[in-house]
Amino acid sequence: MDRNNDVIMSSQLYSILVTTVIGIGILSMPRALAENVGPDSLIVLVLGSVLFLIIALLIQRLVTKFPNKTIIEMSANVLFKPMGTIIGFGYFLHLLISTVLVVRAFGEITKNFLLLNTPIEVIIISFLITVVYSVRSGIESIARLAVIILPMSIFPALFVMLVAIPDLDFTYFLPILKTPLPKIIKTVPQIFFSFIGFEIILQLGFFVKDRKNIKKAAIKSILFISSVYFVFTAITIARFGIAETKILTWPVVTLFKSVDVPGTLLENVEAVIMATWLLSIFMSVAVSYYVATFLLSRILKSKEHNYLALFILPLVYILSLIPKNIVEVYEFLDKFANIVSITMIFIIPIFLLFISFLKRKSKKGMKRNG
Amino acid sequence: MDRIKIYLIILIIPILLFSGCWDKVEIDERAFITAIGYDKYEGGNEAKEENVEKETEKEPLNRYIRTITYPNVSLIAGKGQGKPFFVYSTVCASWADGRQQIALRDNKNFYVYHLKAVIFNEEIARDEELFREMFDTFERSVFLNRKLYFFVTPNKAQDILMTDTGKNMDVGLYIDELMSKENKPTRMAKSDLGTIAVDLRESNAALAPRIIKSKDEIKVSGAGVLKDNKLVGMLGELETRDVFILKGKVKLADYTIKVDDKFIVVSQTDLKTNMKTYEDKDGNINVYFDIRAEGDIVQHYFRTSKEPFDEKYIDRVNKKVNELISKELGDVFKKIQKDFGADIFKVGENLRKFHPATWNKIKDDWDEIYPKVKVKVDYKMNIRRVGIKQ
What residues form the membrane-spanning segments (chain A) (predicted)? Predict the structure, then answer.
């Protein structure tokens, strides 16, 4: 079973990015927004998305600047050799932990809404085995899967959102801009957290065949993701109001539950929607798992990543069962998002880009002098 | 190698195919609870004897009488026989306790996914502690649907659920059809659990439909006014209609008006309501309702000489109708404002959204300010149609 096919197209990169980023975060995002900025949620969301688009462009710049290099070689090149391994290992840990957290949250949601009698251990292990299977198949299979899953997971949910439209009250977004400014500024990084997963472009850029289109794929994916976020947040808050959204653990799931699709045989559509939504969570996990194993194989200088996927499996499984309850998962998720992810998505890539610019300038200067 | 693979496949396929049957529950073994009613348990002697069954040393914490009903599914499908519905009542401490107790008494598996209605007896609804306990259960549960109807009743919820509707269905399904029919009656509050929860959080007041039993019939009419997480009062049928006109949720209403010693009926159609709030110079909060409607004379007098076809007469009717309805609506607003102090028209919410500066000033004293809010209702109806005779 030699699947030596590590090449993807930029359009596939777009699907991978979208399915990776959209996942667990959006289900609770309206709550975080309503809690912090109330009626200004949508404004803050747009602001955050625009800012993230700029960050995304910077990250993409870094990717196109170093063709055929992963983050390890990039940072080794820009800084010095051991730094490459350290930063690479940092990214590996970051992806591992985010995989763990998403897997646990996935388990909780599935147990709560779909598989009520199944032990969470069984849910998680069977999920992880499926993930490992697709990870072992290589990036090209994952890319094809992403292209198939993207419409399958997002569109049923969007359809249900449309059905909710008659009962909406958009005055919940009034008054505009009465939230104190520091609060708005504090909340913007939380929006970045919803874009966690985008940093995999740093590694996946390595596989892309038509490199000049990476920029287009990055912009397109950010636009698509932020519009999905916008629609979900707008409809959820317009339906439940600020006060109610604040107290729901997964406002979006409750929205699925409270929607009455007219003339359906199925009375409770949320089970169907949740099932399709799980596909997108599956993609988030599969891609970050793949990238984590890929980075590990690069750090260990091994040619294959396949066997490593199996080695990480018990680690992910045990770590995902450590949090005692859902409250702890979300507390950790918040802390993790604030510190680690901002560093990984934001600070390191921009730092590298900055240094590489400086280096080039100094090189140019040296040439001129010499 | 291939042989092993084939063996493996033969082993795996039955697991996939047959494991589903292992825990199967056939549809006729399921009891889909459609309505649950709660009454307050006062602790009579009779009921105490029943509690011997519990065999606990601790004093049981009985506060509710919980009544459930579920339809005879096979009868609805046209196959089975027997009663069209089943009703069980139990004395219990909580939702979960009641569920456990009823499970001991029936041979079916209970499911609440399809619950349509929850009925609270007035006494339970007026008790803040019990009301909050129950409401939290409803909101927290994954199984319950936010679209279910929440009723209050002055009668016993148990009696209502035991009513035989005579239509081969149980009360839950009956209520659901009644509430969701296409020609919606205008004299009832149509709000579900989700709406009530949202309204209680946003404005600390909400309306719940009222259900009453008279002889062998049940009737959904009027509304219960909820405030501060409990029931504070009830509204009659016509008051409920007026409230919903003010809220802009009613499109059609009939009014009987006396003009020149004749009772004529003017049907109000295409009702549109616009509510405005503002603070006047003296610092008083004002509410202004601007309601537009079209009129249709549906009843006049037999053998009157072309009166409804006279422009002057129509003008007079218009004026009279506007005056009377404006007053009636204003009175209803004042009644709710003074008697219950419940902000069911979302005046506070409106101020918060459209006049945030004013709202920030008064929000802490809103409970005292609301009863003093000045109201003006401007009802503007024009008769457009007079029927097919002159």
Answer: 12-30, 42-63, 84-107, 113-133, 145-165, 191-209, 221-242, 271-295, 307-327, 339-358
Burial of A221 (0-12, 13-18, 19+ CB in 10 A): buried
Give yes or no: residues B230 and B364 share one domain: no
The alpha carbon torsion through B152, B156, B159, B160 (nearest 10 deg) reads: -10
Residue reference for tokens 């062998």: B216
Whether B367 maps to a domain, the answer reads yes
Flag if B202 and A113 touch (Cβ within 8 Å): no
Identify the contact set of chain B against chain A, taking CB-CB distances under 8 A.
23, 113-114, 142, 145-147, 194, 197-198, 201-202, 352-354, 356
Task: For A244, name the nearest residue in chain B, comparing CA atoms only.
Answer: B198
- Enumerate the residues of chain A whose CB falls inside 8 A of the CB of residue B197: 244
Long-range contacts of B273-281 (CB under 8 A, 24+ apart): B273/B245, B273/B246, B273/B247, B273/B248, B274/B248, B275/B246, B275/B248, B275/B345, B275/B347, B275/B350, B276/B350, B277/B347, B277/B350, B277/B351, B277/B354, B277/B355, B278/B355, B279/B355, B279/B358
- Domain residue limits, chain A: 10-359
| Complex confidence, ipTM | 0.83
Q: Are residues B125 and B265 in the same domain?
A: no
Q: Which residues pair with B291 in a beta bridge?
A: B273, B379
Instruction: Name every chain B residue with its beta carbon within 8 A of the beta carbon of A242.
Output: 202
Return the residue of A nearest to B249 by Cα.
A167
Closest approach of chain B CAs to the CA of A112, in angstroms?
7
CB B26 within 8 A of CB B152: no
Residue of B nearest to A40 (CA): B353
* B contacts of A270 (beta carbons < 8 Å): none
Read off the amino acid at residue B100.
Q
Q: pTM of the predicted model, to two decimals?
A: 0.88
Measured between CA atoms, the residue of chain B closest to residue A39 is B353
- Each of the 390 residues of chain B gets a pLDDT tens digit; together they read 788 999 999 888 888 777 767 777 887 788 889 999 999 887 754 544 455 555 555 566 778 889 999 888 777 777 777 888 889 998 888 888 888 888 888 888 888 888 889 999 999 899 998 899 888 998 888 888 888 899 999 999 999 998 888 888 888 888 888 888 878 788 888 888 888 999 999 889 999 999 999 888 899 989 999 999 999 999 999 999 999 999 988 888 888 888 888 888 989 888 999 999 988 888 888 999 999 999 888 888 888 777 778 888 889 889 999 999 999 999 999 999 999 989 999 999 999 989 988 898 888 888 889 998 999 999 999 988 888 887
A267, B194: Cβ pair inside 8 Å?
A: no
User: Is the CB of A365 inside 8 Å of chain B's CB atoms?
Assistant: no
- Contact criterion met (CB < 8 Å) for B113 and A254: no
A171 to chain B, any CB pair closer than 8 A? The answer is yes
- Across the interface, whether the CB atoms of A243 and B198 are under 8 A apart is answered yes
d(CA A253, nearest CA chain B) in Å:
10
For residue B15, tell me if it sits in a domain. Answer: no
B277, B286 contact by CB (below 8 A): yes
* B184: containing domain: 25-235
Summarize pLDDT for B314-337 with one digit per residue, the tens.
898 899 999 999 999 999 999 999
Same domain, B293 and B224: no
> Which residues from chain A sit within 8 angstroms of residue B147, using beta carbons?
258, 260
Last residue of a domain, one of B211, B235, B259: B235
Does residue B294 share a domain with residue B182?
A: no
CATH 3.90.650.10 fits A10-359, yes or no: no
Regarding whether B169 and B129 lie in a shared domain, the answer is: yes
Specify whether B142 is located in the same domain as B206: yes
Overall domain count for chain B: 2
Closest Cβ opposite residue B198 in set A112, A174, A244: A244
Spatial separation of the C-alpha atoms in residues A96 and A202, rounded to whole Å: 16
